Each structure stands twice: as C-alpha cells, then as structure tokens.
Amino acid sequence: MLRVDSIDLYYGAARALRAVTLAAEPGKVTCVLGRNGVGKTSLLGALAGRHAVSRGSIRLDDVDITRLAPHDRARRGIAYVPQGREIFPLLTVEENLKTGFAPLPREDRSIPADVFSLFPVLEGMLRRRGGDLSGGHQQQLAIARALVMRPRLLLLDEQTEGIQPSIIKDIGRVIAYLRNLGHIAVVLVEQYLDFARELGDFFAVMDRGAIVYSCGRDGMDQAALRRAMAI
Question: Rounded to whole angstroms, how far apart are CA atoms 107 and 73?
C-alpha cells in the first residue's frame, strides 16, 4: 500500500505540490484528475523518485521511501509509465521490453506471459524498432515494459493522450485486468473524467499543486467532481 503524507515539492522558488496526501491500495485504482499544469505529473515524478520532496513522507507497505533514488524504488516494485512514453526509439520492441529487467533479480529476468496476452500486437512486432511504431502501439509498449518489472505499484501518466479510441479501450481493459489481479496498486493520472470514472475506485482532483476534492466510487458526487475539475 502507498501512503503519501503532506508532501511539498519545489522547482527552485516555485511550489509545485502543496501538502498533498494520497493513498493507493492493492487491487484498486486511484485516479488523479485535473487540468494541465496543476501538478499531476509532478506528483507522479515525486512518487517515482524523479523529484525530491522538501516536506512530508512517502511510504510503501509501511517502509519510508521518501529519500530513495528512482532505481531503489524500482527494485521495491514501483513502475512508472510517463507522459510521452519515453521508449527507446532505436531499440527493438523486444529490447525495449527487456530494459524492464534492470531492477529484477537475475532469476526473474523473463517477459511474463500475460504481457503478450494483454498486448498481443506486440508479439508480432518484437523485431521492429520502437520508433517505427504508431503512437498507440508505443503506449502499449511503454505499459508492457512496466509490467515486465512485476510491479506492486504502477504509476500511469496520461495514458489516453493522443491515442486512437480503439487503443484507449484496450488500455482500459488492461488497467481493469491489473486491478482485478488484486496485488497491484494503480495510480492513474488522467484528464478525461469518463475514462477515469470507468476504472477508478478513488478520485482526487488537483488544482495549483493541491488536492481540492477527493472521494471514493461509492460516495462520488459527479456534479461536485466536475465542478472541482473546472476550477
């Protein structure tokens, strides 16, 4: 379980996160919503260890990981699929997938079978370079690479941005499958409420670096959620 307690993040003098508190449970999807520029990506960067927080704590399964480097967090089971995908364009699909081996012990360095059952198109593209794939297939590759790491916590940033509707549906099915496995906690950053609402168990809306509204699926007030997103 992920517990984020009152974290602040600064870029120089600019405050990007303001006392953000958040939780993510195994078998659940926590959706972080809001407009562009409100701090959603900064939050995921802080969780992945890309940005050091100046205050507050981040704990995974009751272990304080606030000061751990990104590679140490990866070894503890945190996988991050960033906005823009960040695949290696000159590596083949297979080589891109195998970069997910880095945080794993040697005996676990294999591509899980469910990667190709979830993304069957990739199995036929193993020898193609990542840069030759369409944007949608690159997005699938980026998620598949994260799954090679056998994550306990999966951080997904704007997975629907610029992607054709058919692949958005495929990605939605993959997230639902991962949630239903019961042992992976998912934090999904998303701008599109309809996509998030189909998948989410918990919802947090950000504005100006702070969480301004939060709720669970059972207690969701859709009108209040939409108002918070329109601030």
Answer: 19
In single-letter form, the type of residue at position 172 comes to: G
Q: How far apart are CA 199 and CA 165, in angstroms?
A: 16
Give per-residue pLDDT as tens, 205-231: 999 999 999 999 888 777 888 888 876
- Alpha-carbon distance of 164 to 181, in angstroms, equals 26
SS3 assignment, position 100: helix
- Please give the structure tokens belonging to residue 178: 């991962």
**216 with 201: CB under 8 angstroms?**
yes
Q: Is the pLDDT of residue 5 over 90?
A: yes
b/e sequence 15-31, b meaning 16+ C-beta within 10 Å: ebbbebebbbebebbbb
Sequence-distant (≥ 6) Cβ neighbours of residue 128 within 8 angstroms: 92, 93
